[in-house]
């Protein structure tokens, strides 16, 4: 177990050192074979939202999710549910092809259960997107 994993009685907190240091939340929690991935915006290690619009923010936010999943012992194909919160659904849809290409390059072509939800704003005012998910690590790799 790496030092970024904190074991409790029932689950393991997962906070990769390569991500921004969490305050008041965990990047992820592993409970048995299931991994709950906390909402990730496009924060870099210095606690700044990346610039470049929705595509750049999707790439960083999803990378943060996948980094947490990997730290917990999972892989992209282990994702069973992903929820994407968007401050501008039309902007996301207008960039859907490019975002889809990014998804496939980062996680493959099998998609989990997916929801996209429009919201008025996210925690960081500059954030356009937040992604959270749930993964189930197969018993053969648990």
Could you tell me the CATH topology label. 60s Ribosomal Protein L30, Chain: A
- Tally the structural domains: 1
Main structural class: alpha+beta
**Which architecture per CATH?**
2-Layer Sandwich
How large, in whole angstroms, is the Cα Rg?
A: 15 Å
| Average of pLDDT | 93
| CATH homologous group name | RutC-like
Helix content: 25-40%
Q: Distance between the terminal alpha carbons, to the nearest Å?
A: 13 Å
Largest sheet: 7 strands, mixed
Adjacency order of strands in the biggest sheet:
1-2-3-4-7-5-6
User: How many H/I helical runs?
Assistant: 3
CATH class: Alpha Beta
The count of strands amounts to 7
Shape: globular
Strand coverage percent:
25-35%
Show unreliable segments.
none
